[in-house]
Amino acid sequence: MPTPEPSCIVTVDAITVEVPAGASAVAALVAAGTLCTRRSATGRPRFAVCGIGQCQECRVTVDGKANVLACRTLCKEGMRIVTGAHP
Ligand code: FES
Predict the structure, then answer these.
(1) Among the listed residues 18, 37, 16, the one whose alpha carbon sits nearest the alpha carbon of residue 26
(2) Each residue of 13-56: pLDDT tens digit?
(3) Between 3.30.1490.190, 3.40.1260.20, 3.10.20.30, 3.40.50.1970, what CATH number should domain 7-82 receive?
């Protein structure tokens, strides 16, 4: 019988999701159904593009720290991710 993967609970805006421990914050956003990390200057939704820390489109606020790259951030128990999806 396979051992279950360790998981952690994180919050994306007001949504609580369970993701595998060590998953990227982008994975938590997807699990929460939030396909918007921030808004452009004209208000259009933006989301992760490259997944390797180059495009800067995945910037969110993590545990109060602004402009964190979600694609380069691993989920930890109790992490709070705030997006710009709901201006
Ligand atoms: S997805 Fe491009 S920097 Fe994160």
Answers:
(1) 37
(2) 999 999 998 899 999 999 999 999 999 999 999 999 999 999 99
(3) 3.10.20.30
